[in-house]
Amino acid sequence: MDKPVVRDAALLIFRAVLGVIFVAHGWEKLFIAGITKTTGQFSAWGVPQPKLSAWITAIAELLGGGLLVVGLLTTFVAGAMALLIAAAMYFVHLDAGFFISEGGIEYPLLLVVSLLMIVVFGSGRASVDGVLTRG
Fold first, then answer.
1. CA pair distance 18, 74, nearest whole angstrom
2. Which residue in 34, 42, 78, 80 has a CA-CA distance of 20 to 30 Å to 10?
3. What pTM was computed for the model?
4. How far apart are CA 45 and CA 65, in angstroms?
5. Domain of 69?
6. In this structure, are residues 17 and 71 in contact, taking their beta carbons and an 8 Å threshold?
7. Is residue 81 part of a domain?
8. How many domains does the chain have?
9. Is 51 within a domain?
10. Would 133 be classed as within a structural domain?
11. pLDDT tens digits, residue range 57-72?
12. What residues have CB less than 8 Å from 72, skipping those under 6 apart?
């Protein structure tokens, strides 16, 4: 299984699925729930500067997720998004326990670890980054 083509395919699938999850969450914050409702939720959770935080989070999830899908600026985007999710863990999920059913850190912890895997292993050759570094 330690063949470059298998490793690159696994990174592509992993990166694409993670990116789609972030795009869906950003889309939901901006266009389904709306930024006003998202700001209200952030305010209720005690997130500092809830309106600014809601905009930053929604745009970062939408654009960052898209960049993960195509594999552009991948390690930078994954690192920045890991910090964003770590902040969400601190402000929203930490006091709620472990399990996601209780609003705990289970899901955001999985996201942070997944993003760190991309930071460590990169985007693979099946990405825009991979194409640009081969040239």
1. 12
2. 80
3. 0.94
4. 24
5. 4-123
6. no
7. yes
8. 1
9. yes
10. no
11. 999 999 999 999 999 9
12. 127, 128, 129
